[in-house]
Amino acid sequence: GGGDDAGSSGGGGDDKITMGFSQVGAESGWRTANTKSIQESAAAAGIDLKFSDAQGKQENQIKAIRSFIAQRVDVIAFSPVVESGWDTVLKEAKDANIPVILTDRSVDSQDKTLYKTFIGSDFVLEGKKAGEWLVKEYEGKSDPVNIVELQGTPGAAPANDRKAGFAEVIKADPKFKIVASQTGQFTRTDGKEVMEAFLKSQPKIDVLYAHNDDMGLGAIEAIEAAGKKPGTDIKIITVDAVKDGMTALAAGKINYIVECSPLLGPQLMDLAKKVKAGETVEQRVLTQETTFTQEQAKTALPDRKY
Ligand code: GYE
């Protein structure tokens, strides 16, 4: 590791781990909480963090990873903005003997030796949980249920997987119809804009499924502006459970949220230490998550950390 340590706990400066971290950007409340978790946990673990924000661009992440390799950091961690196109740069890190930890999102590389481990959620399961709530909600009813979907960033693992998991569950009953599905880039602004367009083009919308809270919150603005009641006229399901999402859920504007935890920092730092020490780590570290109804949100809200 580099830097002049003013005596970190225990060993000498040589023991201090340097981690290069390439973050997706700052597109959502989830992302902001994730960045904070990583920065705070690095400080608490005595890890020297080189943090780089890719502003949503894969090319920036590739540049950052190459620069971490050139600086000879001890560990590289990153949250891949999209799933594909990582083999070359991951191979460069491997050839330089720098271990890589995938954080939050995965890559579609066939060669699993290109990274040490992947810590994050099961996004397919999240999509399934969203679908299961819907199936229950409309149990015993036979009228068609028109669904609009706001997808995350094109090519991102959570967008691909949340779409797939949801589709798999609802396809069991033909009354469920996804009448429109478009990206809202995981942001409030795009969520609002795309929902405005859906409201204009779709004569009947029963349900909105948004791949994250932020897009759902943007869509709520569009729904209210159109003179409709979110949560009642249009039922809303989102993913993440950040504070603003939970507040809207408790207020009855969202109907159900599937939790996705952004607090990956502490586990990431533990994994970095183990990897640096040459210990073997699990190829896959899953985060623990739950789901929230409106009643559960009211109870959970006061203690919500992010
Ligand atoms: O759900 C969304 C963010 O990768 C799990 O990215 C993350 C997703 C999260 O923009 O809000």
H/E element string? Answer: EHEHEHEEHEHEHEHEHEHEEH
**Percent of sequence in beta strands:** 15-25%
Number of helices: 10
Helix/strand-derived category reads alpha/beta
For the largest sheet, list the strands in their spatial order: 2-1-3-4-5-11
What percent of residues adopt helix (DSSP H or I)?
Answer: 25-40%
Rounded average pLDDT: 95
Number of strands: 12
Distance between the termini: 31 Å
| Morphology call | elongated
List the ligand species.
beta-D-fucofuranose
> What's the story with the biggest beta sheet?
6 strands, parallel
Radius of gyration over C-alpha positions, nearest whole angstrom:
21 Å
Point out poorly predicted stretches.
Answer: 1-12
Subcellular location: Cell envelope
Pfam families: Peripla_BP_4
Family: Belongs to the bacterial solute-binding protein 2 family.
Protein name: LacI family transcriptional regulator
